[in-house]
Design brief:
- With 343 residues, this protein is mainly α.
- Helices cover 78% and strands 0% of the residues.
- It is built from 14 helices and no strands.
- The radius of gyration is 23 Å and the shape is globular.
């Protein structure tokens, strides 16, 4: 790849890719409902334009603040330790971001629904989304956390070269704090969306500012004592405070609360799974261990979740899925699945 694409050209290709995406989205929007490319300046009055500008500026500052708050520890590692340490830290952080991929997809789907429900004052629907996103999100996030945490031996085994000083102990220590931060954020549900699409949207930026300040202060002291692991500890604590602030704000302003009992059940299930696979080792090649472990963790987790069925959500969803694929599988297999799966 280095023979075909230089580092300087790669930057332009990345920018070009995003420009192409922007052009494609604009074209798609213009094709919806015969939208006109000509600006309709008389569509809104002066007060509405002011609100649009204020909200746009908020989203820009919110995005910038979010990036700075999350990346603050990496800047400090570079100045206090070395660029190599930043690379090691960023590698584990990037892999830990895999935990958040399903949650981002769910947030994109639920965002317009929450916005519409808040506009219509349908708090019952907002509560349903808030609690279900918390339960489903916690289950998926903990599954990903356990799978990646116990796979670091194989992940590092597949890495070529010197690995930048990364070893299994360091990787698991860093990932432990990154993973906890991700699980906490996802387990608190769609609280960010509820705040952002409400009249109190500015509060989210204040909470982000608080997280950034806490991250910077704790990283300064913990990096000096624990190195890059200290930076991960600071990040995890900052995320905990950030999500605690949002949780209590949503509960106070909207009267919404998480389903703590079912979250505790999910935590208990995955606590057992974590301990089980802590002692259960796979002695094969990493390319065999990784899918084998994923299958084993998924099988044990799914069995326990269907048995306990936190929130009475998972079992019904699995039964719906099995019924929906009835026409795509032989009747003998379908009847067997229906007998096995509890209703």
């Amino acid at each position: 790849m280095r023979q075909w694409i230089s580092l300087a050209h790669f930057h332009f290709y990345i920018i070009g890719f995003y420009v192409l995406v922007l052009i494609s989205l604009v074209y798609y929007i213009l094709t919806l409902d015969n939208h006109s490319a000509e600006p309709q300046l008389t569509m809104f009055d002066r007060g509405e334009y002011k609100g649009i500008v204020d909200y746009t500026l908020f989203f820009m500052l919110n995005g910038i603040g979010s990036t700075l708050a999350v990346r603050m520890d990496q800047f400090m590692i570079g100045s206090m330790i070395s660029a190599v340490a930043v690379g090691t830290y960023s590698l584990v952080l990037t892999i830990s971001n895999v935990i958040d991929i399903p949650n981002k997809a769910f947030s994109q789907i639920s965002a317009p629904v929450i916005s519409n429900s808040l506009s219509n004052n349908d708090m019952g629907n907002v509560k349903k989304i808030y609690q279900s996103s918390s339960i489903y999100g916690a289950a998926v996030a903990l599954f990903m956390f356990i799978l990646i945490y116990h796979s670091w031996v194989d992940i590092i085994g597949l890495m070529p070269g010197e690995k930048g000083g990364l070893n299994v102990q360091l990787a698991t220590q860093l990932f432990l704090f990154f993973g906890i931060a991700k699980v906490i954020e996802i387990s608190t549900g769609t609280n960010s969306l509820i705040i952002i699409y409400s009249p109190f949207y500015r509060f989210h930026m204040y909470a982000l500012l608080t997280m950034g300040i806490i991250n910077a202060i704790f990283a300064y002291f913990l990096i000096g004592k624990y190195g890059i692991v200290g930076a991960a500890m600071a990040t995890a604590f900052a995320f905990f405070v950030f999500n605690a602030i949002k949780y209590f704000f949503v509960r106070a302003k909207f009267g919404l609360d998480l389903d703590k009992l079912n979250l505790f059940k999910i935590a208990a299930i995955f606590g057992f799974v974590w301990v089980l696979f802590y002692f259960l080792k796979f002695p094969f090649h990493p390319l065999i261990n990784l899918p084998l472990r994923a299958f084993a963790v998924g099988l044990v987790t799914l069995t326990m979740i269907l048995w306990i069925d936190p929130g009475q959500l998972f079992r019904s969803e699995v039964n719906k899925t099995v019924v929906s694929i009835e026409s795509f599988i032989p009747k003998r297999i379908y009847s067997t699945l229906v007998k096995i799966l509890p209703r």
